[in-house]
Amino acid sequence: MSEPIPPPKPKSHGRLSISASLQPRDLMAPQRVKGAWCAKIVTLFPDAFPGTLGLSLTGKAMDMGLWALETIDLRAFGEGRHRNVDDTPAGGGAGMVLRADVVARALDQAMQGAPRDRARWPIVFLSPRGRPFTQAKAHEWAAAEGLTLLCGRFEGVDQRVIDAYGIEEVSLGDFVMTGGEIAAQAMIDATVRLIPGVLGNMASTEEESFSDGLLEHPQFTKPPVWEGREIPPVLLSGNHGEIAKWRRAEAEALTAARRPDLWAAHQARLVPGERKPRK
Ligand code: SAH
């Protein structure tokens, strides 16, 4: 006994459009630059957004219309009077699984007007079973036109909808959370800061951790002496060649000590006898 699904909310088109959700931010009528990168999030908890994405640089960039966020409430697509979205796992076992038909209806609404080519607009299921999220993935997504993220809850989602929609499974790391919402925010944050104009200083994304396969060197600022601890004198020397050398050595030592996996990959890219990675 399923009830009719509410029709999609009307959307305005044009160079600038008003977001359809009713977060306080949206009531301030943020303006979206046409064609701006957009994250569409299918979730049982739309109130979790924009969360930290509404703060600081990502929040300002959203206000400026450099990127946009839309939530699609999975509950609205549920079955029956109670809008059920989940059921018991086939084959038995603990917990509940999100239904393929319910998730599919929400995804269909989310993908209205988005390109079908998954390279231009990936659909992602946040999942501890997915490939680990990386800086390279953030770059790939930032170069797309947008992204649809499906946040799981309970034991996850019926496999058939993942297969049928060509959904990519991506993990935030080797641990299990109760839902995909925090993972979605983390990945959107990492992606949005690579969109031109979001960070004041794009150079900082070229020098930071992972950009050349190494972790970043330690950072210091004023005061020059704090509780008896000095800033490494080379950093105050004004000698840019020596500073670069020191930073490089620190980055290499940190990477070798903390991330043998990254260090081995970095070493493998070095031409024997050279210190610069091969292009
Ligand atoms: N039974 C699943 C875990 C379900 S956790 C398993 O063993 O693989 C519930 C939901 O939280 C998942 O569907 C996923 O959307 C989200 N989630 C939990 N941990 C995550 C992680 N490390 N990365 C991304 N999403 C995660």
UniProtKB/TrEMBL annotation:
Keyword entries, A-Z: Cytoplasm, Methyltransferase, S-adenosyl-L-methionine, Transferase, tRNA processing
Recorded catalytic activity of this chain's protein: guanosine(37) in tRNA + S-adenosyl-L-methionine = N(1)-methylguanosine(37) in tRNA + S-adenosyl-L-homocysteine + H(+)
GO biological process: tRNA N1-guanine methylation
Compartments where located: Cytoplasm
EC number: 2.1.1.228
Positions of S-adenosyl-L-methionine binding: 152, 172-177
Domain tRNA methyltransferase TRMD/TRM10-type residues, every copy: 40-264
Cellular component annotations (GO), alphabetically ordered: cytosol
Top-level enzyme category: transferase
Keyword S-adenosyl-L-methionine in annotation: yes
One Gene Ontology molecular-function label: tRNA (guanine(37)-N1)-methyltransferase activity
Principal subcellular localization: cytoplasm
InterPro entries registered for this protein in UniProt: Alpha/beta_knot_MTases, tRNA_m1G_MeTrfase_C_sf, tRNA_m1G_MeTrfase_TrmD, tRNA_m1G_MTases_N, tRNA_MeTrfase_TRMD/TRM10
Known function: Specifically methylates guanosine-37 in various tRNAs.
Assembly and interaction partners: Homodimer.
NCBIfam families: PRK00026.1, trmD
Family according to the record: Belongs to the RNA methyltransferase TrmD family.
The protein's name: tRNA (guanine-N(1)-)-methyltransferase
Organism per entry: Gemmobacter lutimaris
Gene name in the database record: trmD
